[in-house]
């Protein structure tokens, strides 16, 4: 399996995803938009597209962020979906998947920064991957928006602060508004680069302090990510 990862910023890193790729000796390539990289010319260059998060939104313009061309990226993601690739979007990446499928992103009812509980929905019990997950579990968060929904999409998990945390768009396309990939190293990068948000939103109900963010053991969260990725790529082996 050949994996391609789109990174919007250096601090929105693959984290535990990179560990999983290394452990499984998989081929990986990157489009690091913050370095001026271009998207692959063809979807034949990869089997599995992973789109990371970022401080941008699908509505961010080139005037606001010169290395983020939302229209071009949405077209790239849409092409991957049309070519039946596996696609996983995280945070901004999930919102961009929704946009690629014609579903507009929305603002979350609450901003969430920290580690908070997700609860699976009834639809998750019918999902071939998430039906084996615990009914509720802790996961990382750092967001103010959430992905749009298509007529065929299913919400598989929600949190107290946000109703759209895990969305299945198709059997091969998933969006995570939450962050299973956070590690102690990657959360430090987020704190260093986006720490002002912890000050600006400290009075909100679902915003932790930098000390709280650093205190979490992300390994159990990462194990759930590995479970998801193992099962998704298992489908690739059988396709």
Structure commentary:
The structure is a single chain. By secondary structure, the chain is an alpha/beta fold. 30% of the residues lie in helices and 26% in strands. It contains 7 helices and 9 strands; from the N terminus they run βαββαβαβββββαααα. It has a 9-stranded mixed beta sheet, sandwiched between helices. Helix 2 crosses helix 3. It starts with a strand and ends with a helix.
SSE series: EHEEHEHEEEEEHHHH
First and last CA, distance: 12 Å
Average pLDDT confidence is 97
- The assigned structural class equals alpha/beta
How big a fraction of the residues is strand?
Answer: 25-35%
Please count the beta strands (DSSP E, at least 2 residues each).
9
The percentage helix is 25-40%
Strand order of the largest sheet: 2-1-3-4-9-8-7-5-6
Low-confidence stretches: none
Tell me the radius of gyration: 16 Å
Counted by DSSP, the helix tally is 7
Largest sheet: 9 strands, mixed
**Which overall shape is indicated by the principal axes computed on the Cα atoms?**
globular
